[in-house]
Every structure is written in C-alpha cells, then in structure tokens.
Write a structure and sequence with these properties.
The chain is an alpha+beta fold and 243 residues long. 30% of the residues lie in helices and 32% in strands. The longest helix has 45 residues, at 2-46. The radius of gyration is 37 Å and the shape is globular.
Length: 243
C-alpha cells in the first residue's frame, strides 16, 4: 500500500502543474495588455495635440524696399519685412503732389509727364508718366493714376464688381487675378494682368479714400522691364494721401 501511495503523488503534482500553466500564461498576457494600455494613455495625455495650420488669405503688404510679404504662421500674420537697405533707392526721384486730388508720391526723375488732371468718360486722370519720350513712339511703359467718384462710399470690392460687371469673365478675374493688399495701412485690391498685349503687362491697384476710388496702373514693357514690380512697389510705398 505504501508503495502505491508514493507512486501516486508525483502524478497528482504533475497534473496540477500542467493545469496551472495556461492560467499563468493568460494572466501574463492580460498584465502585458494592461501595462501597455496604461503606457499608451500616459503618452497620449502627455503629448499635446499639434494644431492644424489654417489656410491664410492671399493678401500682401508693401515693404519699404519695394518687396511684398504675405500672411503666414498659425495666426496668419504678415511676415516681417526685410531689413531696410542702407541706400535709399528713391533718393534721386522726384516728388509729385496734387493738392486737388490730395495725393503725393515719388517717381523716377527720368520719366516723362504724359497728362495731368485730364477728364475722361467715367473719371479723371490725376497724372500719367511714361518711362520713355512719347515723341519717339513705341510701347509707353509707365504709371497712370485715375480717380473715380464713389459718392455712395461702397465697399471697395463692391465698387470693383460694379465696374467690371457680372458674368463668367468677371468671376474668373476675381477668382484668379484679384488679391487683397494694403497701401499705407489702407485696404486695397491688386489686379494682376490676365493677358499681355503687345509685350505689355498692366497691374492695377485700387484704393478708396473719402468717397473717391483711385486706380493706380503700372504698365510694364515685358522685354525692357521698365516698370517692374520692385519699382512699382517703391512708388506705392511712397504714395500718401493728404489730409
């Protein structure tokens, strides 16, 4: 009898150990899952969610050096202007002032005056300049400033839409070639050329002031680049309205 009892004990221990291993393995797996979940939750809470960058509007600000900067960053603020150059590019330029139209700006001294205070169908040409002698003919690059009456003091974009009219062409121009900008802290619109006839490209700036809308047009010879964007922006930066 004693021999049988001794021989039966190892069998019980063996069976008991074999049944315990699946339980140990199961609890180990559950423990690893729990620990992993806690670690993941801690990392998720500890790491701040990166804010998504919103799209900034396509506005531009004219800088003193004639360049233009747009809005950027999470708050869509204007990018800083480049550091001012030691040399004033407009030091040798002339100054034009119209007390009647209450406007003043600087322009290259070598330019020719084409017209001044000239009545046209729907407005008045305040002044226009050419980069070359008009007697020689050819493409006349330069600057033209026209004033239009805005007695109802419409918002600038509403005035622009009224001038250009309605239709497919107007919608295309507004969506592709019209941009918001500022001229000396005043809201303005910049209309880029949608075509370039006879090697010329024309860029228009519209700005409203005291019941008047001014259109500042730069006509640039594509070949000679007489009135490139840098020169135009320097003129715009120096442009001021008189009180």
């Amino acid at each position: 009898m004693e021999e049988n009892i001794v021989q039966g004990q190892p069998e019980e221990i063996k069976n008991s150990s074999a049944g315990a291993w699946p339980k140990v393995a199961l609890f180990s797996v559950l423990g690893l899952v729990l620990v992993g979940g806690l670690v993941f939750a801690a990392l998720k809470i500890g790491v701040p969610t990166k804010p998504q960058q919103k799209a900034c509007s396509a506005e531009a600000k004219i800088c003193p050096d004639g360049s233009a900067v747009g809005r950027t960053g999470p708050n869509c603020e204007f990018a800083p202007c480049p550091a001012p150059a030691t040399k004033d590019e407009t030091a040798s330029w002339k100054v034009y002032t119209s007390t009647k139209h209450k406007i003043t700006f600087k322009y290259p001294a070598s330019w020719y005056t084409l017209s001044e205070d000239l009545k046209i169908m729907d407005g008045t040409v305040v002044v226009s300049f050419s980069t070359s002698d008009p007697k020689l003919g050819g493409n006349l690059s330069g600057i033209e400033i026209v004033s239009y009456s805005n007695p109802r003091r419409l918002q600038l974009i509403d005035w622009w839409r009224k001038q250009i009219g309605e239709g497919e062409y107007a919608n295309e121009v507004e969506s592709k070639y019209l941009f918001k900008t500022t001229i000396n802290s005043l809201p303005a619109l910049r209309q880029e050329p949608d075509s370039a006839p006879e090697n010329l490209e024309m860029t228009d700036i519209f700005v409203a002031r005291d019941g008047t809308v001014f259109k500042i047009r730069a006509t640039n010879d594509i070949v000679n680049q007489d009135v490139n964007k840098e020169i135009f922006n320097l003129i715009l930066y120096a442009l001021k309205f008189l009180d």
